[in-house]
What we know:
8 strands; TIM Barrel; alpha/beta; binds flavin-adenine dinucleotide; single chain
Amino acid sequence: MKLSSILGKGKPTLSFEVFPPKTADKYDTVQQAVEEIAQLNPAYMSVTYGAGGGTSAFTTSIAANILKNHGVTPLAHLTCVSSTRQMIRDQVTLLKENGIENILALRGDIPQEGGALSDYHYASELIYELKNLGDFCIGAACYPDGHVESKNVAEDILHLKEKVDAGCDFLTTQMFFDNHVLYSFLYKIREAGITVPVVAGIMPVTNASQIKRICALSGTYLPQRFKAIVDRFGDHTAAMQQAGIAYATDQIIDLFANGVNAVHVYSMNKPAVARQIQKNLSEILA
Ligand code: FAD
């Protein structure tokens, strides 16, 4: 099923993200977590793609398993910055052979150690190419706080429009912790003529030091209310998990209440977190 048939239809949807293992010996552990999350029967599940494309075969096999064994629609991520055109074509063939119809088309982070291949510079080029390689529903990333390489949000939105014009069908946001940042971003992109559905990406924080580092690197705004929770509970794993799930639930309820109907949870291969969030929203999603 294409995600375009469920997104933007006015019904609240909850989806989850998983990531493939870095090495084959961790495959079974990841697969176990993926299956537990798939059993929650989310609207769809996304499977990330290793930065350098090194775990590309795992992305496809996990996505294929989600579809075949659980009947849950997969969204396979695909990055291009470390790929040649031929590598992308091979990956697309593999996705087609496995019946995967939805792709989140990304540039990927430019490797610090070098080694980015020069066939692609931006995600828009990948989106344009994917449109010609098959009948896919294509998503792209967007950044309510602005992408770290952009001068400002306005410049980032100009390039976001290029991705939409290249043929992307929906957008998924980077994590954000203040819903007003998203609402302001949505207003700006609609003004810029971007009308495709936007899926809000929500990260339930369970590891305080990791999130502080990621947010500092990506320039994500941390509201005082969130910082206080992390400062107070960050050293206590179970308490941080409980508070992180409560904060994420609160964000999601506010999003649904304000008409942002599609929410994607960065569940990070943690079935307990995915399960608890879904339980907290059971009546709202019914
Ligand atoms: P682009 O859309 O190409 O944008 C990158 C930068 O270039 C932006 O600053 C943009 O404004 C600028 N830009 C775009 N076009 C132009 C142009 N024509 N001229 C000048 N500047 C331009 N990474 C992974 O490795 N694997 C994953 O699975 C993965 N999943 C992700 C999922 C989501 C929802 C998000 C938000 C991010 C994900 N990432 C993933 C991270 C992503 O790869 C990085 O954020 C990367 O740095 C940018 O990717 P992009 O597709 O947004 O790039």
